[in-house]
Amino acid sequence: MNARLDMFANPTALKAWKHVIAAGKVIEEGSSVPAATLELVKIRASQINGCGYCVDMHTKDATVAGETPIRLHLVAVWREATVFTDAERAALELAEQGTRLADSAGGVTDEVWDNAAKHYDNDQLADLVSVIALINAFNRGNAIIRQPAGSYRPGQHG
Fold first, then answer.
1. Do residues 98 and 133 touch, judged by C-beta distance below 8 A?
2. Residue 84 DSSP one-character state
3. From CA 70, how far away is CA 104, in angstroms rounded?
4. Which of 35, 67, 93, 115 has its CA 20 to 30 A from that of 129?
5. What is the CA radius of gyration of the chain?
6. Which residue numbers delimit the Carboxymuconolactone decarboxylase-like domain (predicted)?
7. How far is 68 from 73, CA to CA, in rounded Å?
8. By the 8 A CB rule, do 132 and 98 touch?
9. Domains of the chain: residue spans and CATH
């Protein structure tokens, strides 16, 4: 199975995506949101969007960073799982509503936003919003080109 288009080999795609990648690095390197939380958010949005490549990438990166297998296995059912903190749960709910915009005419509800604001300051909320928007962009790009999952090696795009 091959992708329809190699986004790293195509000069036009690379011009655009290098900026999206750079934005992700800015957050990754400067956020005070725990790295584990950011990875959980990326994994959950990728699960919702059916982006196998991003699920593969972020579960592997999270594992290398020390995330436990049980937590990774339970991301998809985080509401029923007892292994996530209240702050992580708020971030996961924000990620879900921010990813499923079409499911609600109003987008992210005030209740979900207010819950996230109990756990994160404005800079952290800005990081979470940015990570959610960026992972959704990556998910959509990978889904369009049918980027296959399974071959990602941690740090491959570093």
1. yes
2. S
3. 31
4. 67
5. 15
6. 24-96
7. 9
8. yes
9. 23-145 (1.20.1290.10)
